[in-house]
Amino acid sequence: MPELAMMIQATQTPSRETGGAAVLEKAPERVRKPSPRYKVLLHNDPVNTMEYVVSTLRQVVPSLSEQDAIAVMLEAHNTGVGLVIVCDLEPAEFYSETLKAKGLSSTIEPEE
What's the predicted TM-score (pTM) here? Predict the structure, then answer.
C-alpha cells in the first residue's frame, strides 16, 4: 500500500465540505516539450563520385544502410538536395560539419 501512495504522489488534506474526510490531490504532472528536430541536408555535388558520396554518408551517419545512403545520394543528384537524417541539433551540426570536412556540401534546417 505505501507503494501506491508513492506512485500517486498525492497529499491528503482535510476538506470542510465533506466533514473532515480526506481528499486526494494529485501532484501536477510535468509536461516535457520534445526538443526541436533538425534536417541534415546533402546538396548536389558535381565534383565527388557517387561511390565516394555513398561511402562518406555511411561513415558519417552509421545508422544509414547502404540502400539509404544510395537513396540520399540519388535524391541530391536528381533534385539538388537530399535529406540525410532528422535529429536533435547537436548531432545534426556534427553530421553536417563532418560531411563538409570530407568535401561534401551540407546544411541543416529546422524540421517543420
Answer: 0.71
